[in-house]
Amino acid sequence: MNKIREGIFWTGYIDWDLRNFHGYETPSGSTYNAYLIVDDKPTLIDTVKFYGAQEMLRRIREVMDPSKIRYIISNHTEMDHSGSIDELLKYCPNAEVVCSPKGAEGLKEHFKKDWKFKIVQTGDVLDIGKRKLKFVLMPMVHWPDSMATYCEEERILFSNDAFGQHYASHERYVDEAGLDPVTFEATKYYANIVTPYGNQVLKVLEAAKDLKIDMICPSHGLIWREAKDISHIVSLYKKWANYESDNKALIVYDTMWHSTEKMARRLFENLDKAGIPVKLVNLQVTHMSDVVTDMLLSKMIMIGTPILNNRMLPTVAGLMMYAKGLKPKNRFAFTFGSYGWATGGFKELETFCQEAGWELIGEGVYLKFIPDEADLKKLDEILPLIKNKLKV
Ligand code: FEO
Q: What is the pTM of this model?
């Protein structure tokens, strides 16, 4: 039994096998967290993906008869959290579904059912007996319908996707699983899911700043309960939402005949010798969801591509399309690559960088066929500019 407080239980589903979440690689699996509050009006906060419904029901039954559930709070319509509402309602047909106005629209559109809805706004309070639940709408963190639920008596924030991590484990708390591995997954989660919505995250942090919080219960992964861990993740969210990054460089490339690789390695050597923190990433062996995590953490992004059919290599194009959507702003970028006879893809790469919100530094360096030492020297010229931009 997963009791997180007297009368409050974790009744979620552990998705041990999940390795891909709409294109985001999830090597650690995930959980879909549902929380059952046993009070005068028993309330379930969020459900789980459709295939976890029976495991969720089994966990609920360990605590109480599901037919007694009075409210199902749907903090977010996305199907990893609302996917079992329909199944659950078979066992508690009189339960009301509590959600934001956009949540009600989205749930009706997803399920084509007209359940009993209770629509709430920021500041509204749901009295469930000994406890009162307050709602904070979080539009675009990360869907229009998203909201969080706060219980003042317990000082718990049920934050839905915010502060979540794709991390399957038997442990329920960050301090049990270890702060470092959880932070790693929370960082990847923010990079791949939340990055475009920095301004909205800042608004939510402002709206929540006066709440007394002893526990943050997200809808994925581990629960934050130690004060130091809570301030750690909140300060990281503030930093990321302000598009701040570390003074380090990321060199990411793909290569056809090792020429662009030679260039990438020359850049790496230069930065390494200069003592600049730098990571070298080959797209042939690295998934783009890991690359955008490094983009979140790096002030300088250096991208290299060979030319194929006058375009960027498709792996680089795919990465840039993804990065353009996520828009980790306030970054510097430098482009490089090798070509045979056509250079059209380099212009595309530069345009993608600008559309991702990055400031291009210097002229891109593009070298014909196999670069020799004289060619590679052209890459050395960018080093002073990188030092200047990174202030190292
Ligand atoms: Fe975890 Fe936006 O769903």
A: 0.97
